[in-house]
From TrEMBL, chain A:
NDH-1 is composed of 14 different subunits. Subunits NuoA, H, J, K, L, M, N constitute the membrane sector of the complex. This is NADH-quinone oxidoreductase subunit H. It catalyses: a quinone + NADH + 5 H(+)(in) = a quinol + NAD(+) + 4 H(+)(out). It comes from Hymenobacter glacieicola. Its EC number is 7.1.1.-.
From TrEMBL, chain B:
The gene is nuoJ. Signal peptide: none annotated. Keywords: Cell membrane, Membrane, NAD, Quinone, Transmembrane, Transmembrane helix. This is NADH-quinone oxidoreductase subunit J. NDH-1 shuttles electrons from NADH, via FMN and iron-sulfur (Fe-S) centers, to quinones in the respiratory chain. Couples the redox reaction to proton translocation (for every two electrons transferred, four hydrogen ions are translocated across the cytoplasmic membrane), and thus conserves the redox energy in a proton gradient.
Protein backbone atom coordinates (compact mmCIF):
# COMPACT_ATOMS: atom_id res chain seq x y z
CA UNK A 1 0.00 0.00 0.00
CA UNK A 2 1.04 3.58 -0.51
CA UNK A 3 1.78 5.32 2.73
CA UNK A 4 0.26 8.74 2.99
CA UNK A 5 2.23 10.55 5.67
CA UNK A 6 0.29 12.32 8.41
CA UNK A 7 -2.65 13.15 6.22
CA UNK A 8 -5.08 14.11 8.94
CA UNK A 9 -3.83 17.41 10.30
CA UNK A 10 -2.16 18.58 7.10
CA UNK A 11 -5.26 18.05 5.00
CA UNK A 12 -7.18 20.30 7.40
CA UNK A 13 -4.48 22.97 7.08
CA UNK A 14 -4.47 22.68 3.31
CA UNK A 15 -8.25 22.91 3.19
CA UNK A 16 -8.25 26.02 5.41
CA UNK A 17 -5.49 27.63 3.32
CA UNK A 18 -7.42 26.81 0.15
CA UNK A 19 -10.61 28.34 1.51
CA UNK A 20 -8.74 31.37 2.82
CA UNK A 21 -7.01 31.97 -0.52
CA UNK A 22 -10.35 31.92 -2.29
CA UNK A 23 -12.00 34.15 0.32
CA UNK A 24 -9.17 36.68 0.25
CA UNK A 25 -9.11 36.64 -3.57
CA UNK A 26 -12.88 37.24 -3.57
CA UNK A 27 -12.60 40.24 -1.32
CA UNK A 28 -9.58 41.47 -3.28
CA UNK A 29 -11.95 42.24 -6.14
CA UNK A 30 -13.98 44.34 -3.71
CA UNK A 31 -10.90 45.93 -2.16
CA UNK A 32 -9.56 46.79 -5.61
CA UNK A 33 -12.69 48.82 -6.37
CA UNK A 34 -12.81 50.48 -2.97
CA UNK A 35 -9.15 51.45 -3.20
CA UNK A 36 -9.57 52.63 -6.78
CA UNK A 37 -12.54 54.72 -5.69
CA UNK A 38 -10.58 56.13 -2.76
CA UNK A 39 -7.59 57.03 -4.92
CA UNK A 40 -9.79 58.59 -7.59
CA UNK A 41 -12.04 60.39 -5.10
CA UNK A 42 -15.16 58.43 -6.03
CA UNK A 43 -17.72 56.56 -3.95
CA UNK A 44 -17.03 53.04 -5.20
CA UNK A 45 -19.30 50.01 -4.83
CA UNK A 46 -22.01 50.71 -2.24
CA UNK A 47 -25.20 49.18 -3.67
CA UNK A 48 -24.99 45.45 -2.87
CA UNK A 49 -25.27 44.94 0.86
CA UNK A 50 -23.88 47.20 3.59
CA UNK A 51 -20.89 49.17 2.24
CA UNK A 52 -21.22 47.10 -0.95
CA UNK A 53 -19.82 44.06 0.85
CA UNK A 54 -21.99 41.67 -1.18
CA UNK A 55 -20.49 42.98 -4.40
CA UNK A 56 -18.18 39.93 -4.97
CA UNK A 57 -21.24 37.69 -4.58
CA UNK A 58 -23.15 39.70 -7.15
CA UNK A 59 -20.17 39.50 -9.48
CA UNK A 60 -19.99 35.73 -9.10
CA UNK A 61 -23.70 35.37 -9.91
CA UNK A 62 -23.21 37.58 -12.94
CA UNK A 63 -20.20 35.55 -14.12
CA UNK A 64 -21.97 32.21 -13.71
CA UNK A 65 -25.14 33.27 -15.49
CA UNK A 66 -23.49 34.89 -18.50
CA UNK A 67 -23.53 33.19 -21.89
CA UNK A 68 -20.72 30.73 -22.39
CA UNK A 69 -19.18 31.51 -25.75
CA UNK A 70 -16.79 29.44 -27.84
CA UNK A 71 -15.13 31.31 -30.70
CA UNK A 72 -15.22 29.69 -34.13
CA UNK A 73 -12.14 27.61 -34.94
CA UNK A 74 -11.09 27.52 -31.30
CA UNK A 75 -9.44 24.45 -29.88
CA UNK A 76 -12.26 23.63 -27.51
CA UNK A 77 -10.44 21.30 -25.11
CA UNK A 78 -7.51 23.65 -24.63
CA UNK A 79 -9.87 26.64 -24.51
CA UNK A 80 -11.44 25.11 -21.39
CA UNK A 81 -8.12 23.81 -20.06
CA UNK A 82 -6.43 27.25 -20.09
CA UNK A 83 -8.38 28.95 -17.28
CA UNK A 84 -8.40 25.74 -15.23
CA UNK A 85 -4.62 25.59 -15.42
CA UNK A 86 -4.31 29.25 -14.48
CA UNK A 87 -6.38 28.62 -11.35
CA UNK A 88 -4.62 25.36 -10.41
CA UNK A 89 -1.13 26.85 -10.60
CA UNK A 90 -2.26 29.93 -8.70
CA UNK A 91 -3.56 27.79 -5.82
CA UNK A 92 -0.69 25.30 -5.69
CA UNK A 93 2.09 27.45 -4.29
CA UNK A 94 0.32 28.30 -1.03
CA UNK A 95 0.85 24.69 0.08
CA UNK A 96 4.39 25.25 1.32
CA UNK A 97 3.97 28.70 2.88
CA UNK A 98 4.32 28.62 6.67
CA UNK A 99 1.29 30.53 7.90
CA UNK A 100 2.28 30.11 11.51
CA UNK A 101 4.67 28.48 13.92
CA UNK A 102 3.78 25.24 15.67
CA UNK A 103 0.80 24.72 17.97
CA UNK A 104 1.09 22.13 20.71
CA UNK A 105 -1.76 20.28 22.37
CA UNK A 106 -0.55 17.87 25.03
CA UNK A 107 2.29 15.96 23.43
CA UNK A 108 1.34 16.68 19.83
CA UNK A 109 2.86 19.58 17.94
CA UNK A 110 1.33 20.78 14.69
CA UNK A 111 2.75 23.12 12.09
CA UNK A 112 0.41 25.72 10.65
CA UNK A 113 1.66 24.87 7.19
CA UNK A 114 0.34 22.67 4.40
CA UNK A 115 3.48 20.68 3.70
CA UNK A 116 6.89 21.29 5.19
CA UNK A 117 9.42 20.32 2.50
CA UNK A 118 13.10 21.12 2.40
CA UNK A 119 12.73 22.58 -1.09
CA UNK A 120 9.93 25.02 -0.29
CA UNK A 121 11.53 27.93 -2.09
CA UNK A 122 12.08 25.84 -5.22
CA UNK A 123 8.47 24.66 -5.06
CA UNK A 124 7.22 28.24 -5.08
CA UNK A 125 9.58 29.17 -7.88
CA UNK A 126 8.61 26.11 -9.94
CA UNK A 127 4.89 26.72 -9.58
CA UNK A 128 5.34 30.40 -10.45
CA UNK A 129 7.21 29.41 -13.60
CA UNK A 130 4.33 27.11 -14.57
CA UNK A 131 1.77 29.87 -14.09
CA UNK A 132 2.28 31.23 -17.57
CA UNK A 133 0.93 28.08 -19.24
CA UNK A 134 -2.67 28.91 -18.40
CA UNK A 135 -2.36 32.27 -20.14
CA UNK A 136 -0.41 30.85 -23.09
CA UNK A 137 -2.73 27.92 -23.75
CA UNK A 138 -5.87 30.01 -23.34
CA UNK A 139 -4.55 32.73 -25.61
CA UNK A 140 -3.49 30.29 -28.31
CA UNK A 141 -6.64 28.17 -28.20
CA UNK A 142 -8.85 31.24 -28.71
CA UNK A 143 -7.92 31.41 -32.39
CA UNK A 144 -7.70 35.18 -32.23
CA UNK A 145 -4.66 37.23 -33.12
CA UNK A 146 -5.04 39.60 -30.19
CA UNK A 147 -5.29 36.67 -27.81
CA UNK A 148 -2.21 35.10 -29.39
CA UNK A 149 -0.27 38.36 -29.06
CA UNK A 150 -1.27 38.55 -25.41
CA UNK A 151 -0.16 34.94 -24.86
CA UNK A 152 3.18 35.54 -26.55
CA UNK A 153 3.75 38.68 -24.50
CA UNK A 154 2.92 36.80 -21.31
CA UNK A 155 5.40 34.07 -22.18
CA UNK A 156 8.32 36.35 -22.95
CA UNK A 157 7.58 38.60 -20.00
CA UNK A 158 7.47 35.72 -17.54
CA UNK A 159 10.64 34.11 -18.85
CA UNK A 160 12.49 37.43 -18.69
CA UNK A 161 11.47 38.33 -15.16
CA UNK A 162 11.87 34.82 -13.81
CA UNK A 163 15.63 35.13 -14.27
CA UNK A 164 15.97 38.23 -12.12
CA UNK A 165 13.51 36.80 -9.58
CA UNK A 166 15.51 33.58 -9.31
CA UNK A 167 18.72 35.47 -8.77
CA UNK A 168 17.12 37.65 -6.08
CA UNK A 169 16.09 34.39 -4.40
CA UNK A 170 19.65 33.05 -4.65
CA UNK A 171 20.87 35.97 -2.53
CA UNK A 172 18.29 35.10 0.14
CA UNK A 173 19.40 31.49 -0.08
CA UNK A 174 23.02 32.57 0.48
CA UNK A 175 22.23 34.17 3.83
CA UNK A 176 19.74 31.55 4.97
CA UNK A 177 21.56 28.44 3.79
CA UNK A 178 18.29 26.55 3.51
CA UNK A 179 15.48 26.21 0.99
CA UNK A 180 12.82 25.49 3.57
CA UNK A 181 10.50 28.45 4.00
CA UNK A 182 9.84 27.51 7.61
CA UNK A 183 13.56 27.54 8.45
CA UNK A 184 13.99 30.86 6.63
CA UNK A 185 11.21 32.30 8.76
CA UNK A 186 12.59 30.93 12.01
CA UNK A 187 16.05 32.33 11.23
CA UNK A 188 14.65 35.84 11.03
CA UNK A 189 13.97 36.01 14.74
CA UNK A 190 16.17 34.61 17.48
CA UNK A 191 15.26 34.78 21.16
CA UNK A 192 17.29 37.09 23.34
CA UNK A 193 19.26 39.01 20.72
CA UNK A 194 18.77 41.74 18.16
CA UNK A 195 17.92 40.00 14.95
CA UNK A 196 16.67 41.67 11.84
CA UNK A 197 14.30 40.53 9.15
CA UNK A 198 15.81 39.73 5.77
CA UNK A 199 14.70 43.07 4.33
CA UNK A 200 17.51 44.72 6.30
CA UNK A 201 20.09 42.35 4.85
CA UNK A 202 18.60 42.26 1.34
CA UNK A 203 17.16 45.69 0.47
CA UNK A 204 18.22 45.54 -3.17
CA UNK A 205 17.15 41.92 -3.51
CA UNK A 206 13.73 42.79 -2.12
CA UNK A 207 13.21 45.61 -4.63
CA UNK A 208 14.20 43.30 -7.50
CA UNK A 209 11.88 40.61 -6.18
CA UNK A 210 9.04 43.09 -5.79
CA UNK A 211 9.34 44.38 -9.36
CA UNK A 212 9.52 40.82 -10.68
CA UNK A 213 6.49 39.87 -8.59
CA UNK A 214 4.51 42.61 -10.31
CA UNK A 215 5.63 41.30 -13.69
CA UNK A 216 4.94 37.64 -12.84
CA UNK A 217 1.41 38.37 -11.65
CA UNK A 218 0.73 40.52 -14.76
CA UNK A 219 -0.21 43.52 -12.67
CA UNK A 220 -0.04 47.14 -13.74
CA UNK A 221 2.44 48.63 -14.64
CA UNK A 222 3.41 45.32 -16.28
CA UNK A 223 -0.01 44.08 -17.43
CA UNK A 224 1.03 44.01 -21.07
CA UNK A 225 -0.52 40.56 -21.78
CA UNK A 226 -4.00 42.03 -21.26
CA UNK A 227 -3.20 45.56 -22.36
CA UNK A 228 -6.68 46.73 -23.38
CA UNK A 229 -5.53 49.82 -25.25
CA UNK A 230 -3.54 47.72 -27.71
CA UNK A 231 -4.92 44.17 -27.61
CA UNK A 232 -8.68 44.53 -26.90
CA UNK A 233 -8.50 42.25 -23.87
CA UNK A 234 -5.22 40.45 -24.45
CA UNK A 235 -5.20 36.72 -23.82
CA UNK A 236 -8.76 36.68 -22.48
CA UNK A 237 -10.35 38.63 -25.35
CA UNK A 238 -12.53 35.66 -26.38
CA UNK A 239 -13.38 34.49 -22.89
CA UNK A 240 -16.72 35.01 -21.26
CA UNK A 241 -18.69 33.68 -18.31
CA UNK A 242 -16.88 31.92 -15.47
CA UNK A 243 -13.87 31.03 -17.64
CA UNK A 244 -13.07 34.74 -17.76
CA UNK A 245 -13.89 34.81 -14.07
CA UNK A 246 -11.30 32.12 -13.38
CA UNK A 247 -8.61 34.12 -15.17
CA UNK A 248 -9.41 37.29 -13.27
CA UNK A 249 -9.69 35.34 -10.04
CA UNK A 250 -6.39 33.54 -10.57
CA UNK A 251 -4.71 36.94 -10.77
CA UNK A 252 -5.93 37.83 -7.28
CA UNK A 253 -4.94 34.44 -5.88
CA UNK A 254 -1.49 35.01 -7.38
CA UNK A 255 -1.27 38.40 -5.71
CA UNK A 256 -2.18 36.84 -2.38
CA UNK A 257 0.39 34.07 -2.76
CA UNK A 258 3.18 36.34 -3.93
CA UNK A 259 2.45 38.73 -1.05
CA UNK A 260 2.69 35.79 1.34
CA UNK A 261 6.00 34.73 -0.20
CA UNK A 262 7.42 38.25 0.10
CA UNK A 263 6.28 38.47 3.73
CA UNK A 264 7.92 35.15 4.51
CA UNK A 265 11.18 35.73 2.65
CA UNK A 266 11.83 39.36 3.52
CA UNK A 267 9.49 40.50 6.28
CA UNK A 268 9.90 37.85 8.91
CA UNK A 269 6.88 35.67 8.08
CA UNK A 270 5.01 34.85 11.25
CA UNK A 271 7.54 36.61 13.50
CA UNK A 272 6.63 39.87 15.13
CA UNK A 273 8.75 42.18 17.30
CA UNK A 274 9.14 41.30 20.97
CA UNK A 275 7.37 37.96 20.63
CA UNK A 276 9.78 36.17 22.97
CA UNK A 277 9.58 38.98 25.51
CA UNK A 278 5.79 38.72 25.41
CA UNK A 279 5.94 34.96 25.87
CA UNK A 280 8.35 35.19 28.79
CA UNK A 281 6.26 37.93 30.38
CA UNK A 282 3.14 35.77 30.11
CA UNK A 283 4.94 32.83 31.66
CA UNK A 284 6.67 34.64 34.50
CA UNK A 285 4.24 37.43 35.39
CA UNK A 286 0.85 36.01 34.45
CA UNK A 287 1.47 32.41 35.43
CA UNK A 288 0.73 30.92 31.98
CA UNK A 289 2.04 27.56 30.97
CA UNK A 290 4.83 27.71 28.42
CA UNK A 291 2.88 25.69 25.86
CA UNK A 292 -0.24 27.85 25.98
CA UNK A 293 1.85 31.02 25.87
CA UNK A 294 3.61 29.61 22.80
CA UNK A 295 0.24 28.80 21.21
CA UNK A 296 -0.92 32.38 21.78
CA UNK A 297 2.29 33.69 20.19
CA UNK A 298 1.70 31.38 17.22
CA UNK A 299 -1.83 32.68 16.74
CA UNK A 300 -0.69 36.30 17.05
CA UNK A 301 2.09 35.53 14.56
CA UNK A 302 -0.43 34.16 12.07
CA UNK A 303 -2.51 37.31 12.46
CA UNK A 304 0.66 39.34 11.97
CA UNK A 305 1.56 37.44 8.82
CA UNK A 306 -1.88 38.12 7.37
CA UNK A 307 -1.54 41.80 8.24
CA UNK A 308 1.74 41.86 6.30
CA UNK A 309 0.07 40.08 3.40
CA UNK A 310 -2.81 42.57 3.38
CA UNK A 311 -0.33 45.44 3.43
CA UNK A 312 1.35 44.00 0.33
CA UNK A 313 -1.99 43.45 -1.40
CA UNK A 314 -2.84 47.08 -0.70
CA UNK A 315 0.53 48.06 -2.16
CA UNK A 316 -0.23 46.10 -5.35
CA UNK A 317 -3.53 47.97 -5.73
CA UNK A 318 -2.04 51.32 -4.82
CA UNK A 319 0.55 50.89 -7.60
CA UNK A 320 -2.13 49.83 -10.07
CA UNK A 321 -4.14 53.01 -9.62
CA UNK A 322 -1.07 55.24 -9.51
CA UNK A 323 1.34 54.25 -12.27
CA UNK A 324 0.61 54.09 -16.00
CA UNK A 325 1.45 51.01 -18.03
CA UNK A 326 4.91 50.47 -19.47
CA UNK A 327 5.55 50.15 -23.19
CA UNK A 328 6.52 46.64 -24.21
CA UNK A 329 10.10 47.49 -25.22
CA UNK A 330 10.54 49.39 -21.96
CA UNK A 331 9.36 46.35 -20.07
CA UNK A 332 11.88 44.09 -21.78
CA UNK A 333 14.69 46.62 -21.36
CA UNK A 334 13.96 46.98 -17.66
CA UNK A 335 14.01 43.21 -17.22
CA UNK A 336 17.12 42.37 -19.17
CA UNK A 337 19.43 45.36 -18.95
CA UNK A 338 18.60 46.69 -15.50
CA UNK A 339 17.15 44.01 -13.23
CA UNK A 340 19.39 41.10 -14.23
CA UNK A 341 22.69 43.00 -13.87
CA UNK A 342 21.38 44.44 -10.59
CA UNK A 343 20.53 40.94 -9.39
CA UNK A 344 24.04 39.72 -10.24
CA UNK A 345 25.46 42.72 -8.40
CA UNK A 346 23.26 41.88 -5.42
CA UNK A 347 24.63 38.33 -5.36
CA UNK A 348 28.18 39.71 -5.48
CA UNK A 349 27.55 42.19 -2.65
CA UNK A 350 25.85 39.53 -0.55
CA UNK A 351 28.75 37.13 -1.12
CA UNK A 352 31.25 39.82 -0.17
CA UNK A 353 29.36 40.74 2.99
CA UNK A 354 29.15 37.09 4.02
CA UNK A 355 32.85 36.62 3.27
CA UNK A 356 33.82 39.55 5.48
CA UNK A 357 31.38 38.50 8.16
CA UNK A 358 29.19 41.61 8.05
CA UNK A 359 26.01 39.54 7.78
CA UNK A 360 25.48 35.89 8.39
CA UNK B 1 6.97 -2.04 -7.56
CA UNK B 2 4.65 0.30 -5.82
CA UNK B 3 1.31 1.33 -7.34
CA UNK B 4 2.59 4.90 -7.42
CA UNK B 5 5.55 3.86 -9.56
CA UNK B 6 3.30 1.92 -11.92
CA UNK B 7 0.96 4.88 -12.25
CA UNK B 8 3.80 7.30 -12.94
CA UNK B 9 5.38 4.92 -15.44
CA UNK B 10 2.03 4.56 -17.17
CA UNK B 11 1.57 8.34 -17.38
CA UNK B 12 5.15 8.84 -18.57
CA UNK B 13 4.87 6.23 -21.33
CA UNK B 14 1.41 7.32 -22.42
CA UNK B 15 2.33 10.99 -22.65
CA UNK B 16 5.64 10.20 -24.35
CA UNK B 17 3.68 8.28 -26.98
CA UNK B 18 1.33 11.23 -27.18
CA UNK B 19 4.27 13.50 -28.05
CA UNK B 20 5.03 11.34 -31.08
CA UNK B 21 1.53 10.60 -32.24
CA UNK B 22 -0.24 13.90 -31.66
CA UNK B 23 -1.20 15.58 -34.93
CA UNK B 24 -1.09 19.06 -33.49
CA UNK B 25 2.39 20.32 -32.48
CA UNK B 26 0.95 22.30 -29.55
CA UNK B 27 -0.58 19.07 -28.21
CA UNK B 28 2.82 17.42 -28.62
CA UNK B 29 4.45 20.09 -26.49
CA UNK B 30 1.77 19.74 -23.82
CA UNK B 31 2.27 15.97 -23.75
CA UNK B 32 6.01 16.55 -23.37
CA UNK B 33 5.36 18.78 -20.36
CA UNK B 34 3.21 16.01 -18.87
CA UNK B 35 6.11 13.59 -19.47
CA UNK B 36 8.43 15.86 -17.52
CA UNK B 37 5.98 15.93 -14.66
CA UNK B 38 5.84 12.14 -14.60
CA UNK B 39 9.65 12.00 -14.60
CA UNK B 40 9.75 14.47 -11.70
CA UNK B 41 7.38 12.16 -9.87
CA UNK B 42 9.89 9.34 -10.42
CA UNK B 43 12.66 11.52 -8.99
CA UNK B 44 10.52 12.12 -5.92
CA UNK B 45 10.04 8.37 -5.51
CA UNK B 46 13.83 8.03 -5.67
CA UNK B 47 14.11 10.58 -2.85
CA UNK B 48 15.68 13.21 -5.09
CA UNK B 49 13.54 16.22 -4.21
CA UNK B 50 16.00 18.79 -5.49
CA UNK B 51 16.32 17.11 -8.88
CA UNK B 52 12.53 16.86 -9.16
CA UNK B 53 12.06 20.56 -8.44
CA UNK B 54 14.86 21.64 -10.76
CA UNK B 55 13.51 19.40 -13.51
CA UNK B 56 10.16 21.17 -13.25
CA UNK B 57 11.69 24.66 -13.08
CA UNK B 58 14.18 24.26 -15.91
CA UNK B 59 12.41 21.96 -18.33
CA UNK B 60 8.68 22.40 -17.72
CA UNK B 61 8.93 26.00 -16.55
CA UNK B 62 11.45 27.54 -18.91
CA UNK B 63 12.47 25.42 -21.88
CA UNK B 64 8.99 24.17 -22.72
CA UNK B 65 7.61 27.71 -22.48
CA UNK B 66 10.10 28.65 -25.20
CA UNK B 67 9.10 25.60 -27.26
CA UNK B 68 5.45 26.56 -27.00
CA UNK B 69 6.33 30.17 -27.77
CA UNK B 70 8.09 29.24 -31.02
CA UNK B 71 5.44 26.74 -32.09
CA UNK B 72 2.66 29.26 -31.54
CA UNK B 73 4.50 31.70 -33.79
CA UNK B 74 5.12 29.16 -36.54
CA UNK B 75 1.40 28.33 -36.83
CA UNK B 76 2.09 24.73 -37.84
CA UNK B 77 -0.87 22.68 -39.01
CA UNK B 78 -1.64 19.79 -41.32
CA UNK B 79 -1.59 21.89 -44.50
CA UNK B 80 1.88 23.28 -43.94
CA UNK B 81 3.41 20.04 -42.70
CA UNK B 82 6.22 19.02 -45.05
CA UNK B 83 5.87 15.52 -46.50
CA UNK B 84 9.12 13.64 -46.28
CA UNK B 85 10.09 11.25 -49.08
CA UNK B 86 9.58 7.52 -48.46
CA UNK B 87 13.33 6.89 -48.28
CA UNK B 88 13.72 9.29 -45.39
CA UNK B 89 10.83 7.66 -43.54
CA UNK B 90 12.35 4.17 -43.98
CA UNK B 91 15.80 5.39 -42.93
CA UNK B 92 14.33 7.01 -39.83
CA UNK B 93 12.42 3.85 -38.92
CA UNK B 94 15.56 1.69 -39.33
CA UNK B 95 17.73 4.07 -37.29
CA UNK B 96 15.18 4.40 -34.49
CA UNK B 97 14.51 0.66 -34.50
CA UNK B 98 18.19 -0.24 -34.18
CA UNK B 99 18.61 2.21 -31.31
CA UNK B 100 15.68 0.56 -29.55
CA UNK B 101 17.19 -2.89 -30.21
CA UNK B 102 20.56 -1.86 -28.78
CA UNK B 103 18.93 -0.35 -25.69
CA UNK B 104 16.84 -3.45 -25.09
CA UNK B 105 19.84 -5.77 -25.53
CA UNK B 106 22.02 -3.64 -23.29
CA UNK B 107 19.46 -3.34 -20.51
CA UNK B 108 17.98 -6.83 -20.75
CA UNK B 109 20.40 -8.54 -18.40
CA UNK B 110 21.08 -5.66 -16.06
CA UNK B 111 20.72 -6.65 -12.46
CA UNK B 112 20.13 -3.95 -9.91
CA UNK B 113 23.33 -4.16 -7.87
CA UNK B 114 24.06 -1.88 -4.99
CA UNK B 115 20.41 -1.21 -4.41
CA UNK B 116 20.04 -0.10 -0.81
CA UNK B 117 18.64 -2.54 1.68
CA UNK B 118 16.74 -1.42 4.74
CA UNK B 119 20.02 -1.30 6.64
CA UNK B 120 22.00 0.81 4.15
CA UNK B 121 19.09 3.01 3.04
CA UNK B 122 19.90 6.70 3.41
CA UNK B 123 16.88 8.98 3.30
CA UNK B 124 19.08 12.08 2.86
CA UNK B 125 20.76 10.84 -0.30
CA UNK B 126 19.04 13.15 -2.77
CA UNK B 127 18.71 16.21 -0.55
CA UNK B 128 20.16 19.59 -1.47
CA UNK B 129 22.88 19.54 1.20
CA UNK B 130 24.26 16.21 0.08
CA UNK B 131 24.14 17.19 -3.57
CA UNK B 132 25.93 20.47 -2.82
CA UNK B 133 28.72 18.65 -0.99
CA UNK B 134 29.25 16.29 -3.92
CA UNK B 135 29.19 19.12 -6.46
CA UNK B 136 31.60 21.32 -4.52
CA UNK B 137 33.99 18.57 -3.44
CA UNK B 138 34.18 15.95 -6.17
CA UNK B 139 33.06 17.95 -9.21
CA UNK B 140 34.21 21.46 -8.35
CA UNK B 141 35.97 22.24 -11.64
CA UNK B 142 33.25 21.01 -14.04
CA UNK B 143 30.64 22.74 -11.90
CA UNK B 144 32.49 26.07 -11.96
CA UNK B 145 33.14 25.77 -15.70
CA UNK B 146 29.45 25.16 -16.34
CA UNK B 147 28.56 28.21 -14.25
CA UNK B 148 31.02 30.35 -16.24
CA UNK B 149 29.30 29.09 -19.39
CA UNK B 150 25.92 30.22 -18.05
CA UNK B 151 27.35 33.58 -17.04
CA UNK B 152 28.69 34.09 -20.56
CA UNK B 153 25.30 33.23 -22.05
CA UNK B 154 23.61 35.67 -19.69
CA UNK B 155 26.05 38.48 -20.42
CA UNK B 156 25.49 37.82 -24.13
CA UNK B 157 21.73 38.12 -23.71
CA UNK B 158 22.08 41.38 -21.80
CA UNK B 159 24.46 42.73 -24.46
CA UNK B 160 21.96 41.90 -27.22
CA UNK B 161 19.29 43.75 -25.28
CA UNK B 162 21.37 46.91 -24.92
CA UNK B 163 20.34 49.90 -26.97
CA UNK B 164 22.73 50.48 -29.86
CA UNK B 165 24.24 53.87 -30.62
CA UNK B 166 21.89 55.94 -32.75
CA UNK B 167 18.95 53.56 -32.27
CA UNK B 168 15.61 55.34 -32.36
CA UNK B 169 13.94 55.70 -29.02
CA UNK B 170 10.38 55.73 -30.47
Amino acid sequence: MIELPALGWQSIVIFVVFALSLLIATYCTYAERVIAAFLQDRVGPDRAGPYGLAQPLADAVKMFTKEEFFPGGANKALFIFGPCLAMITALMSSAVIPFGNSMSFGNNAFFLQGIEVNIGMLWVFGVVSLGVYGVMIGGWASNNKFSLLGAVRAASQNISYELAMGMALIAVLMISGTLSLRDITLQQSVAGEWHFWNIVKQPLGFIIFLVCAFAETNRTPFDLPECETELVGGYHTEYSSMKLGLYLFAEYVNIFVVSAVMSVLYFGGFNFPFQYELRDWLVSNQGWELASAQNLITLLGTVGLFLKIFAFIFFFMWIRWTLPRFRYDQLMRLGWTILIPLAVLNILITGGLILFGVIN
Amino acid sequence: MSPLFLFLAFVALLSALGVVFAKNPVHSVLFLILTFFALSGHYLLLNAQFLAAVNIIVYAGAIMVLFLFVIMFLNLNVDTEPHKPALAKIAAAVAGGSLLLILVVALKDVLPTGAPTDATFDSQIGMVNRLGLVLYQQYLLPFELASVLFLVAMVGAVMLGKREVGERNF
